[in-house]
Amino acid sequence: MSDQSSAPVAAHEPPYYAVVFTSVRTEGDNGYGETAERMEELVKEIPGFLGMDSARTPGGLGITVGYFRDAEAIEEWRGDMEHRAAQKQGRESWYEGYTVHVARVERSYGFRRGQG
């Protein structure tokens, strides 16, 4: 994923959904970086996409959380043909393994230093 701000995605008015993608990468890039950037561009075009947070440990564990207004937005993203092709490539060469969790967010709040 591209470098994002170190600030997390702002809290949204619930309910909405969080899609948690946890992965362990294989060695090497093998085109991953370019595809990840393209996926970021594409997901932002989905109506109902609210943002995402992403982090990766030096050992290769990555967690990306995408936030969506409703289940329809998630289904649109899940069914996107370029996204499906990237998922296939991920299973073939980029990931040792991954899990996906989809959760409905019932409560959401945040804190930012310097803001009342």
UniProtKB/TrEMBL annotation:
<keyword id="KW-0503">Monooxygenase</keyword>
<protein>
    <submittedName>
        <fullName>Antibiotic biosynthesis monooxygenase family protein</fullName>
        <ecNumber>1.14.-.-</ecNumber>
    </submittedName>
</protein>
<dbReference type="InterPro" id="IPR007138">
    <property type="entry name" value="ABM_dom"/>
</dbReference>
<keyword id="KW-0560">Oxidoreductase</keyword>
<dbReference type="InterPro" id="IPR052936">
    <property type="entry name" value="Jasmonate_Hydroxylase-like"/>
</dbReference>
<feature type="domain" description="ABM">
    <location>
        <begin position="15"/>
        <end position="88"/>
    </location>
</feature>
<dbReference type="InterPro" id="IPR011008">
    <property type="entry name" value="Dimeric_a/b-barrel"/>
</dbReference>
<dbReference type="Pfam" id="PF03992">
    <property type="entry name" value="ABM"/>
</dbReference>
<dbReference type="GO" id="GO:0004497">
    <property type="term" value="F:monooxygenase activity"/>
</dbReference>
